[in-house]
């Protein structure tokens, strides 16, 4: 068992948790919030200040349909999803914005805030996608050919009021997904879709966040969320390691938890705020104790990143920085307004949820110092997250996908 833990942990620490891609780390973004699901790009040599009007736009495509999913980039291809005429469609473009292929996944979500939700997950030549109604499909990433599929209803799951929104986690040989309820989390064989285990997790109905891998003292864990709050399970068998009910019963738990230096941070919207858990791992057993709670980061959809011991994230109508260990608020600022965030090369890329405002700021506990702003066209709400990879900034706003050159 110890050997298994160390092997799995080694894969994660090598950056293989969501796809051992045959590309340089700087040219791939293998799914939701990147390969490590931390919202942090490994790019360097990027602009520290934008010219008036923003960086150079390389290309722009329209016609994605309705949706809130973010792009995933690998194999010299940009993957994005959208709701078109009641169908969920996967679009694949080359790095110049020219179409490679598109594929209908099935029915899209048509109720509250209709359209695409989850971001595709890429791993070893495959693409994995969960739809709002609950269909999970594995595709060949090069051609769009369907490999296998399953339904969340087969595990007793049913979507919440805003549909399944999880970007499924792929780690080692597993696909981890949260149908919710009695079989709160399920692990599937990523090659065949075969069920490997089913776990009660914390027994909650599905909400709208995605899971992460955390490794502490060579002990790996899958940290997931539901309507009942946070939970962690062993990846090999789904045995529950710990739970936390801080955000249980909240209207909607949307953000993905963040892990750094033995701490798990999770903040949600609707006035809830955040909680930071201090983890301890001994002999394969893990405990999670609340270190602090805060109302200084009330985060609806936009998420947060942890860099050098500080949390930077959306706080109600603006932005805030908190000390990871203590929860002390370092600053709070309006910035571009409520939105989503990505980190790259010492900078924060901020994308407002309305009017297409985009901002660049230094990631510093000393304050939010803006060094460039511009706007993109779109309509209604934008809950997609910005992506910085390969020297480019990708922005999805409604049925538009934009690509900018942000290299120095």
Please give a structural write-up.
The protein is mainly β. It has one domain (2-405): YVTN repeat-like/Quinoprotein amine dehydrogenase (Methylamine Dehydrogenase, Chain H, 7 Propeller). The protein has one helix at 2-13, and strands at 56-62, 72-74, 77-84, 87-94, 99-107, 121-123, 126-130, 135-140, 146-151, 169-171, 174-177, 185-189, 195-199, 212-216, 219-226, 229-233, 240-244, 258-260, 263-268, 273-282, 285-294, 304-307, 310-315, 318-323, 329-333, 339-344, 347-352, 357-362, 370-375, 387-389, 392-397, 400-405. The strands form eight sheets. A four-stranded antiparallel sheet has the order 1-32-31-30, with no helix packed on it. A four-stranded antiparallel sheet has the order 2-3-4-5, with no helix packed on it. Strands 6-7-8-9 form a four-stranded antiparallel sheet, with no helix packed on it. A hairpin with a 7-residue loop joins strand 11 (174-177) and strand 12 (185-189). The chain starts with a helix and ends with a strand. Residues 18-24 have low confidence and may be disordered.
| Annotated CATH topology | Methylamine Dehydrogenase, Chain H
Largest sheet: 4 strands, antiparallel
Q: Bin the helical content.
A: under 10%
Taken together, the total number of domains comes to: 1
pLDDT < 50 stretches? 18-24
Beta strand %:
over 45%
């Amino acid at each position: 068992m110890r050997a298994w833990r160390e092997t799995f942990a080694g894969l994660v620490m090598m950056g293989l948790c969501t796809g051992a891609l045959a590309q340089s780390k700087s040219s791939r973004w293998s799914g939701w919030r990147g390969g490590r699901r931390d919202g942090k790009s490994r790019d360097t040599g990027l602009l520290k200040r934008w010219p008036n009007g923003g960086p150079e736009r390389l290309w722009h495509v329209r016609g994605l349909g309705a949706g809130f999913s973010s792009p995933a980039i690998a194999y010299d291809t940009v993957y994005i999803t959208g709701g078109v005429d009641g169908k969920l469609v996967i679009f694949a473009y080359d790095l110049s914005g020219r179409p490679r292929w598109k594929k209908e996944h099935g029915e899209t979500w048509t109720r509250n805030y209709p359209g695409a939700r989850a971001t595709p997950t890429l791993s070893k030549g495959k693409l994995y996608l969960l739809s709002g109604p609950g269909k999970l499909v594995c595709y060949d990433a090069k051609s769009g050919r369907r490999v296998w599929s399953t339904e969340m209803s087969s595990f007793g799951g049913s979507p919440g009021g805003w549909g399944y929104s999880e970007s499924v986690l792929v780690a080692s040989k597993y696909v981890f997904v949260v149908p919710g309820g009695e079989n709160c989390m399920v692990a599937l064989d990523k090659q065949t879709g075969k069920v490997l285990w089913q776990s009660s997790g914390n027994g909650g109905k599905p909400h709208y966040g995605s899971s992460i891998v955390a490794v502490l003292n060579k002990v790996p864990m899958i940290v997931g969320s539901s309507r009942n709050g946070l939970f962690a399970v062993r990846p090999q068998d789904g045995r529950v390691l710990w739970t936390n009910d801080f955000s249980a019963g909240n209207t909607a738990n949307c953000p993905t938890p963040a892990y750094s230096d033995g701490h798990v941070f999770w903040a949600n919207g609707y006035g809830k705020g955040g909680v930071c858990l201090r983890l301890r791992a001994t002999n394969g057993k893990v405990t999670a104790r609340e270190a602090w709670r805060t109302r200084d980061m009330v985060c609806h959809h936009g998420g947060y990143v942890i860099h050098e011991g500080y949390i930077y994230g959306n706080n109600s109508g603006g932005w805030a920085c908190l000390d990871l260990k203590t929860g002390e608020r370092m600053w709070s600022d309006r910035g571009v307004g409520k939105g989503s965030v990505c980190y790259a090369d010492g900078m924060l890329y901020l994308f407002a949820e309305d009017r297409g405002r985009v901002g660049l700021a230094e990631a510093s506990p000393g304050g939010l110092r803006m060094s460039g702003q511009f706007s993109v066209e779109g309509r209604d709400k934008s809950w997609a997250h910005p992506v910085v990879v390969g020297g480019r900034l990708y922005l999805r706003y409604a049925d538009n996908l934009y690509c900018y050159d942000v290299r120095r």
